[in-house]
Design goal:
single chain; about 290 residues; alpha+beta; six-stranded mixed sheet; four-stranded antiparallel sheet; globular
């Protein structure tokens, strides 16, 4: 009788294994299919390259006669991509508008000073934070970072099947992430634009800087003649205070009205490569800066 029971036990074990494996394989197939659908949606929605620029605020410059269309242009790059060059394309576009580039700021009607702060990939949910933070603010935790992942199991009543489903989802997600990526690249610039008053006058500047806290407030007041104020421009950024903060104030007169602005360009496309995005980002940013001038 014992010899008759052994085959029955073997049959039960075999049927259980086949059933569990079948459920696991079906769930894995479903997971891979879902990941494939998400990848296909991304491929369709992001198939066209999208390149845009945004300035943190609007700047209006007084028009000047052709004889005073002179610009001193200074450009720096402190990003991880020092090959980004904005000076040459901006200069070319200004010349096309009738402006003459000079090497002495004292001989210029306008002075452009800019710095490339960041260039490269950025997390999709952080791309707008560059612009929102404004001129002079830091870029901490805004660039793209590695995301932690985990395994997920379905409640199938079998630990082995759940592990298989989790591995299937993880594998499908990994493959989809490797093959189909929603990529954003940005170039972030801070710009200080200075302009001589068209009708002359005196500009009085005052600046207060809190060293160690990351906050500063500056104010410039332009007046024609005596006691006639033409306008006040405020620029400020703030950060958290700490025990090492030190406050400094500075007052002076200047020949220029100064405007501070942040200009951000970003490119987005599925599986976008930096070498394809960077020339377009440079073109967009240089056009954006040059378009401030009539």
């Amino acid at each position: 009788m014992s010899s008759g029971l052994l085959p029955l036990r073997e049959t039960r074990v075999t049927n259980f294994s086949i059933g569990s494996a079948a459920r696991g394989i079906s769930a894995i197939g479903l997971a891979i299919g879902l990941a494939g659908c998400q990848a296909a949606t991304t491929m369709i929605d992001k198939q066209n390259l999208d390149v845009q620029t945004h300035m943190s605020e609007t700047i209006f410059l007084d028009p000047v006669p052709d004889s005073r269309k002179t610009v001193y242009l200074g450009a720096r790059n402190t990003s991880d991509h020092p090959e980004i060059d904005l000076k040459q394309p901006i200069a070319e576009k200004l010349r096309a508008r009738g402006y003459r580039l000079v090497g002495d700021p004292a001989a210029a009607q306008f002075v452009i000073q800019l710095n490339v702060l960041q260039a490269g990939p950025v997390a999709p949910d952080r791309k707008n934070a560059f612009l929102a933070s404004g001129y002079g603010s830091g870029l901490d935790a805004l660039v793209v970072g590695a995301a932690a992942g985990g395994l997920t199991g379905y409640a199938t009543g079998n630990a082995g099947a759940g592990l298989g489903v989790g591995l299937g989802i993880a594998t499908a997600s990994f493959l989809a992430d490797r093959l189909v990526k929603d990529v954003y690249f940005t170039v972030v610039t801070d710009i200080q634009l200075s302009a001589r008053p068209v009708k002359g006058g005196t500009i009085r500047e005052s600046q207060v800087t809190n060293r160690g806290s990351g906050s500063s407030t500056s104010q410039s007041q332009y007046s024609r003649g005596v006691g006639a104020s033409a306008g006040v421009t405020n620029h400020s950024s703030s950060g958290s205070q700490n025990s090492n903060a030190r406050s400094q104030s500075y007052e002076s007169t200047s020949d220029f009205l100064k405007f501070n602005v942040r200009d951000v360009a970003y490119a987005n496309q599925v599986n976008l490569k930096w070498e394809n995005a960077s020339p377009l980002l440079v073109e967009k940013l240089s056009s954006s800066v040059a378009n401030l001038f009539e």
